[in-house]
Amino acid sequence: MAADFVSGELIVQYEPDIEESFLNLSRSQNAQVLGKFQPIGGDSRSVARIRLPESRDLGGAIATFQNLSGVISAEYNWKVSKSQVANDTYYLDGSHWGAYSSDVPNNVGGLGTTNEFGSAAEQAWDLGRTGSSDVVVGIIDEGIDISHEDLRQNIWTNPNEVPNDGIDNDRNGYIDDVNGWDFFNRDNSVYDAVDGDDHGTHVAGTIGAVGGNGVGVAGINWNVKILPAKFLGSSGGNISDAILAIDYMTNLKVNHGVNIVALNNSWGGGGYSPALHAAIILAANAGILFVAAAGNSYVDNDVYLTYPASYSTLEPADGQPASSYESVISVAALTSSGSMAGYSNWGFNSVDITAPGTAIMSTLPGNTYGMYSGTSMATPHVTGAIALYESILPTDSPAAVREAILGSATPTPSALGKVASGGRLNILDSLNYMSLPALSIGNASLVEGATGQSSTMNFSVVLSAPVTETFSIQYATSDRSATAGADYLAASGVLTFNPGETSKTFSVSVLGDAAVEGVETFLVALSNLSSRAVRIGTGVALGSIVDDDQTGLVISDNVTMENAGFARFTVSLLNPTNTSVSVRFATANGTAKAGKNTDYNSTSGTLTFAPGETVKTITVALNNDKLAEPNETYFVNLSNATGTTIQDAQATGVIQDDDSTTTKELSVFAFSPDLLTASDWLSLTTEYSKRRGRR
């Protein structure tokens, strides 16, 4: 698939303290800054959208901006498009199978409402679980027909905004955002008939069309609040608007108390965007799950990354650390017969679950309805399931909600080996999932020991309550900052719990060495639980290898003739490390004075030692003069070390004088000034002026 981006535009992330330098560089490139903002929760960076002249090579411009100190990333403004498959006529049979179930244990609905590959939403409805208006779902898509007969009751209204007064009452940066915002047209109209907006309206119906009203379709949630953030038009959209839409949602939750639990993202396109990735992480930090369509290109996402579904909040973005949990859920499409849809992307490591996606009946603009197909249609089933779960268990963490959705997936032959959960969405089981006994693994740590020594780190896996059946669980290690084979020995295996047993242990061998490394970590993950009577609670543990080797920074003294032009000081790391080390340095006066026409030029900065490096050099420029004088001293001081300690913080620099004392020069003090010629006087006064810093 060819990359497609907005002509002439870039997205640049940069540290806020280089604002002036960034603007100067933009001007030098004849670039127009179209907009900039600081993401909510991301105080350490600014994001700008810029437009360059049509003739400018964007690849070269990216390199130019990335070379500016303080720029975190510069990238194309990728275009994206809807993940929709054409409406084939044979799908138009009026069924609503995505909400159906196997009718086990309860026979729900009339004839023709049974399909074991549906989401089992009807089983939840049968138990009175139909959602809550306290739960808000953000839909980042096309616009939504908010006046639709089956949607208007469930459209979010901003309680802090006065409609149509032309004032940004809630001070969130958007005037009159009563029902959301249109980032495509830059206004508060979240529905535009001229743009179509059928895709977004269809997605909204699956999540939250009003149920039980005798009209149209029933969403997964009969009661919910839908918050539109339109960034797609009839021809698609771009990444910069998607970033703004996500940040809009994060802002509403963090600063305005809107209970947004998930964002539905039935769209895809473009390459990797550090700025978009960072926005998703910041939303995760605010407790918002990110549900994304796996894509409709029938490819393996493990091989061909498909964004935004291929983002992970467990991985850092440029300038933004990773979140503490995975917030992304990537959704593939299932047919009504239980097969993986012929258009759906998959990925055992990168796609999480399947859900109904083919011939899905939902709302369309103008109080109409229709069937669409695609992973775009599968995605809102999962988003709707999250909202329904939150309406019942609102205090559960987003990580726990994600675990319940994926952990309760019904094993499905077409999904085995294709998606991480190996199954399809089961809404009823997800609501009951957290009541099952939980299997959890605890973190462990160990001091590494001497070179050649192998130590044992023990991990415990505990079941919260006994069960009456035998089951098994697999475990396996994976690298983080520690490396298998060098720092520890990779381990994997199967733990079997017999009836009544509640704990098991296994060990991982840790390898000692002499390298200075700090604390290194690896992960142990539980997977492939054999029983549906048990759930995985805490499924990943951190193994911490505590370093017992020491290092430190020292700086050498220096003696140099003043006519040498410069002096070099050596800063040494006593032992190599496998992480970066940095230290600040600065000169200070002794008997020697810093200045342009004095003894030396002051200097300061930061030294950074790459992993394995042990030596760096500081250069101080010396100023040669013709004045006979004693040897003079100055200092180079080290401070603010990261990654190590400073054992010797100061070096002394000695400037050896190379000028001889003449009789005439001494005579100015010891003899009559009449003995000096005019030329002698000029030479002496010039030299003294230099010594006093005058020209």
- Note the main sheet: 7 strands, parallel
Structural category is alpha/beta
Text of the CATH class of the largest domain: Alpha Beta
Strand tally = 34
Strand content: 25-35%
Shape: globular
| Strand order, sheet with most strands | 6-7-5-9-11-12-13
Fraction in helix: 10-25%
Task: Round the Cα radius of gyration to an integer and report it.
Answer: 33 Å
What is the helix tally? 11
| Average pLDDT reading | 88
Number of domains: 4
The parts where pLDDT drops under 50 for at least 5 residues are 84-94, 662-675, 691-695
CATH architecture of the largest domain: 3-Layer(aba) Sandwich
Task: Please explain how this structure is put together.
The chain has 4 domains: 75 residues, Alpha-Beta Plaits, CATH 3.30.70; 351 residues, Peptidase S8/S53 domain (Rossmann fold); 109 residues, Sandwich (Immunoglobulin-like), CATH 2.60.40; 104 residues, Immunoglobulin-like, CATH 2.60.40. Helix content is 18%, strand content 30%. The protein is built from 11 helices and 34 strands. The strands form 8 sheets. A 7-stranded parallel sheet has the order 6-7-5-9-11-12-13, with helices on both faces. α4 runs parallel beside α7 and α5 packs parallel to α6. It starts with a strand and ends with a helix. The relative contact order is 0.08. The C terminus is likely disordered.
